[in-house]
């Protein structure tokens, strides 16, 4: 997931810069916050793999996609 997020956001950010997207910095901050959340989830999973609530992850990703 982290690999996908990095690739997707990097590509989107390049497009936004080329297009002169007026609110680029604010949108990039949203990307950075989402990346941080995914990295925190990865770290939590590495430390406590049995404590992951899959339904919460699915809900989190659904909300992000929407």
Describe this entry's structure for a reader.
With 66 residues, this protein is mainly alpha-helical. 82% of the residues lie in helices and 0% in strands. The chain is built from three helices and no strands. The relative contact order is 0.11.
Unreliable residue runs: none
Helical amount: over 70%
Calculate the terminal CA-CA distance, rounded to whole Å: 17 Å
Radius of gyration: 14 Å
Mean of all residue-level pLDDT scores:
94
Provide the β-strand percentage band.
under 5%
Largest sheet: none
The helix-strand sequence is HHH
Determine the structural class based on helices, strands and strand pairing.
mainly alpha
Shape: elongated
How many helices? The count is 3
Topology, number of strands: 0
List keywords for this structure.
single chain, 66 residues, mainly alpha
Which helices and strands appear, and what pairs or packs with what?
Blueprint (H helix, E strand, L loop, with lengths): L1 H18 L4 H24 L6 H12 L1
Helix pairs in contact: 1-2
Summarize the structure.
This protein is mainly alpha-helical and about 70 residues long. Helix content is about 80%, strand content about 0%.
